[in-house]
Design brief:
The chain has helices at about 1-5, 15-20, 65-80, 95-110, 135-150; strands at about 25-35, 35-45, 50-55, 85, 115-120, 125-130, 155-159. By secondary structure, it is an alpha+beta fold. It has a single domain, classed as 3-Layer(aba) Sandwich (Aminopeptidase), CATH 3.40.630.30. The radius of gyration is 15 Å and the shape is globular. The mean pLDDT is about 85.
Length: about 160
């Protein structure tokens, strides 16, 4: 599902994702409805912050509430820690602008606020959404550098 849900330029190498799980700074979560695989999440976390790096719902069960249920579970896991995720920025000229708008509306319905902060992963640019818009970006940026050993160029900016 990881390969199907995220284009190659948005995927991180699989090996560091697994290593971070062993290092206890990340978790893979698989979600099932009985025997049916409905989605997954990959989350980085410290005692101060929680970053949903990847979240995907199985195409066969879209629009059945599983995405919201997964986010509820992750919010419970995060506790009082601020949660961050990054989405493709709104761009009326983007080929997938309708999908971007739907994704934004979904996260807003689930308690995230769009900020004017941006996350750069190499040449890719994403807009940051937070459960607490006053959370310092340094919490998340430091987490990413720790997780990926500065091997992947990462920065966060306000625009």
């Amino acid at each position: 599902m990881y390969l199907r849900s995220f284009p190659a330029h948005e995927r991180l190498p699989y090996f560091p994702l697994v290593v971070n799980s062993w290092r206890k700074i990340a978790n893979f979560y698989a979600y099932y409805n009985h025997e049916e695989f409905v989605g997954f999440a990959y989350v980085l976390s410290t005692t101060e912050a929680y970053f949903i790096l990847f979240l995907a719902v199985n195409d066969l069960v879209h629009s059945k509430g599983y995405g919201s249920k997964i986010l509820q579970d992750l919010r419970q896991d995060a506790g009082k820690r601020p949660i961050m995720l990054a989405i493709e920025p709104m761009n009326e000229e983007a080929a997938n602008r309708t999908q971007r708008k739907k994704r934004l509306a979904f996260y807003e319905r689930n308690g995230f606020e769009l900020t004017q902060h941006f996350y750069y992963e190499g040449s890719e640019r994403y807009q940051i959404m937070l459960t607490n818009p006053n959370s310092p970006l340094s919490l998340f940026e430091n987490m990413m550098h720790q997780a990926f050993w500065n091997l992947i160029p990462i920065k966060m900016t306000s625009e």
